[in-house]
Amino acid sequence: MILSGPEIRRQVENDVITVTPFEPEHLNPNSIDLTLEDTVLRYCNPVIDPREEQEVQEVKIPSTGLQLEPLGFCLGSSRETVGSAEFVPMVHAKSSTARAGLFVHVTADLIDIGSVGTVTFQLFSTLPLTVYPGMRIAQMTFWRPQGEIILYSGKYQGSKGPRKSMIFRDPFWQSLPVHG
């Protein structure tokens, strides 16, 4: 069951859902808008090997905006710290951003229950597009789980700002031969 906008507000006011800072005008009928922080990360290597930690370049988004190149990829983050130990948050692109050619968080929209932190957005621009700090870039819905709840305690817990992939920390890689 998805929460309505007024119910999201009630759950924030009752400290069951975290949205900080909370802007009531960002509420929608069944979601709340998330805004873009002022930093993005770009991967430095032209080929990503998931077994290795990747070097990234941090880029500040000026108040005049940052142009994203067509077919370019970077990581941004929400200004808001979000999460809940009782509801499952899901991140969705805003239709207005998608219609301008920006895919936001297309493949990793499910936030684990119990995760609290800023959301890292996967930004993939299909057209030249300028992004600005504070722009409404995504929306979050909250869903009531069914069954036993096991709270998230993984490698992205407490995220602040955009976070690069930590896939290299997964135990899977320990079972593979070292490449050379």
From TrEMBL:
Enzyme class: hydrolase
Presence of the UniProt keyword Hydrolase in the record: yes
Gene (UniProt): dcd
Sample GO molecular function, one term: dCTP deaminase activity
Keyword terms, alphabetized: Hydrolase, Nucleotide metabolism
Protein's name in the database: dCTP deaminase
Entry's EC annotation: 3.5.4.13
